[in-house]
Amino acid sequence: MRNKKWLALSGIALLATAACGSGEETTDSSKGASSSDAKKEITLVSATDLPQLDPTLTTDSTSIIVTNNVFEGLYRLDENNQPVPGIAEDVEISEDGLTYTFKLRDAKWSDGSPVTAEDFVYSWKRALNPETGAEYAYILQDLKNANKILAGEEDLDSLGVKAVDEKTLEVQLEAPAPYFLSLTGFPTYMPQKQEFVEEQGESFATAVDKTLYNGPYVLDSWQDNTGWVYKKNPEYWDAENVKMETINVKVVKEVATGVNLFESGEVDYTLLSSEFVPQFQDTEEFKTRADARINFLRFNQKNEALQNVNIREALAKGFDKQGVTDVILTDGSQPANYIVAKDFTFTEDGADFREKYPDLQNYNVDEAKAAWEKGLSELGVKTVELEFLSRDEEAFKKVNEYIKGELEKNLPGLTLNIKQQPFKNFLELEGKGEYDISAAGWGPDYQDPMTYLDMWVTDGPFNRMAYSNEEYDKLIQGAKQEADQMKRWEAMQEAERILLEDDFAIAPIYQKGEAYLERSNIQNMYRHPFGADASFKWLDVN
Description:
Layout: E1 17-21, E2 41-46, H1 61-70, E3 75-77, E4 83-85, E5 88-93, E6 99-104, H2 117-128, H3 146-150, E7 161-165, E8 168-172, H4 180-183, H5 194-200, E9 217-223, E10 227-232, E11 246-251, H6 255-263, E12 269-271, H7 277-280, E13 286-299, H8 309-317, H9 321-329, E14 334-335, H10 365-379, E15 384-391, H11 394-410, E16 414-421, H12 423-432, E17 437-442, H13 450-453, H14 470-481, H15 485-502, E18 506-518, E19 522-523, E20 526-527, E21 534-535, E22 540-541
Parallel strand pairs: 2-11, 15-16, 15-17
Antiparallel strand pairs: 1-2, 3-4, 5-6, 6-8, 7-8, 9-10, 10-11, 12-18, 13-17, 13-18, 14-18, 19-22, 20-21
């Protein structure tokens, strides 16, 4: 989230984003910048640049937020995180849950041309075309024959989607997927106009005028290291219910800067880091929210030392996660000894997925030291030096320094060299596997445990660390084909146990929380635990 999903500490949706007003300055911190504005205009602060505007190629949480607000799929999430009709006006679902027939409304692209069923067919096939290089192509795997197409066993025309007519889209699934409607709001499922995409060629989605929009907003400007500007889309089918005229986004990496802007009345919404929580926690503007994002360490097994399971176990158990959440973050984040978030998915009886294995990796210095010594002996070395890749935002720096200090203290002979990179560079390096350990993270794409688990299969596009376990792969593939939901959950729970308890393939750190300041005049900025982190369609200010 997702890498959402930061999609890393890789995809941080609105972990990096805050909202503020764009009106005149005031020294009265009770007045937001937008409170005196006659027009509907606010400003958001993002800790990261916008890496990608092409919905098919989007992988990080900042880009997912943007595409969610300038494009629209068949459905989108509402304030209760339930799918509501977007470009689809209605849907008929067959009794066996395998066929979805969508009736499209009279929606338009930002150039005034109609959005058609063929725009969805083209977009989905484009994502699955290996020439496109879409890392998120696998998220289409619920579609009939999608996995066979990805494996090169079927051609694109066999995909389970067709345009019956201009306003009717028929979709066939491999197996019933109760989350499918919410999934159609994810960027990879959004439509694209073939004629425009092909006309732009390699320039498509590289600038605001190289993109067609069909969502509540269009991008009016976009500059690296500076920010971007949303403008209300007059061609949007539901434009009368879009209240904001302009949403400005500025790239600002320092939390203190956002706090200063809030106090001076220039900012209406900003994130807080630990040092500011005591200052504001008793004020009415102070708020917190729970998240389903998991931050973790990714161990790249291209590195010889990290191919050793004992070395990975030592690194996973050798630092106190409670220190990260309770001392450094203090924003509602919780230590995570798991990769599938708690309080996220439940059985029909209300049981949390986490109940069977609440803790799969615990902090234990003695066990970490023993595993470390065993690993060094097996490698025939006395020291190990590893590069620790991370994003360069302030929040990551503090966590990384803490983890480095803990591990180097508890594991004699270890040297961690922190490599802080701008978000876009971080994503490129991690995607190429050019790191030893990365400070990563994942926000769920849809409300099902599989969104956390299928990226670790052998050669998966988000594996990015050369991890491979045949038993794990079989469990994940079996779960995807299993109709019995309890058996499906059991397979996924066992897969997670193998990933974390047997293989120590990654080291979860914490389940994310947020502490922030928000003016009372901001209304309906909906935040989601999966998919895009934020929806601005219904956003309003008094």
